[in-house]
Write a structure and sequence with these properties.
The protein is globular. It is an alpha/beta fold. It is built from 6 helices and 6 strands. The longest helix is centred in the C-terminal third of the chain and has 19 residues, at 138-156. The protein has a domain at 26-137: 3-Layer(aba) Sandwich (Rossmann fold). The protein has helices at residues 32-42, 55-58, 75-80, 96-108, 138-156, 163-166, and strands at 26-30, 48-52, 65-68, 88-92, 114-119, 133-137. Helix content is 32%, strand content 17%. A 6-stranded parallel β-sheet has the order 3-2-1-4-5-6, sandwiched between helices.
Length: 176
């Protein structure tokens, strides 16, 4: 894991991500629609289980298992989905305090050795200095993805919306 020598700046505070194709089952904890998209992508070549509090995010899984849980921070919920030490976990609990709690439960109660914690605020990086835990900065990942996508598309004069990605989003007209 990288040390945090950046003096609190967001850049350089997070670890590179690669669960690897040799990994066992990948357990995604939380994330809503982001967790769903991640599960769909990883399920192409891995066994994936997505546990979430949002039933909508778990609807119609494509090639992976799901569990609707009342509270992703609950030891009971993690036990019910069958978390084992051989799993690779990706935690997207929405708030860094919840992500930290789930990460600690996975390490101490379930002995999971490979955990990726997705942070909302990269300034909380130091709290996740736990052996076996790699930190992903959500804001940096989104920024990089937007810049990568828009740089090519805008340069070519094409619209930015990806029709395939937009199919998962339900737009509700605002009252007029």
């Amino acid at each position: 894991m990288r040390s945090n020598d950046s003096g609190g700046e967001a850049e350089g505070m997070c670890d590179p991500v690669s669960p690897g194709t040799d990994a066992g089952r990948v357990v995604i904890v939380g994330g809503g629609q982001t967790g769903r998209r991640l599960a769909e992508q990883l399920a192409a070549d891995r066994s994936v289980h997505h546990a979430d509090e949002s039933a909508t995010a778990l609807a119609r899984p494509r090639g992976y298992e799901t569990s609707h849980v009342q509270d992703v921070t609950s030891t009971t919920a993690l036990t019910a989905i069958g978390v084992t030490a051989d799993d690779v976990a990706i935690v997207l609990a929405g708030r860094d305090s919840r992500t930290l709690l789930v990460t600690q439960l996975l390490r101490t109660t379930f002995d999971v050795e490979r955990i990726y914690a997705v942070l909302v605020d990269p300034r909380n990086r130091d709290a996740f200095d736990i052996p076996g835990v790699a930190v992903i900065c959500g804001a940096a990942a989104v920024t990089d993805a937007v810049l990568d996508t828009t740089a090519d598309v805008v340069a070519l004069g094409h619209p930015v919306v990806d029709d395939a990605a937009a199919t998962d989003v339900t737009n509700t007209p605002e009252p007029g």
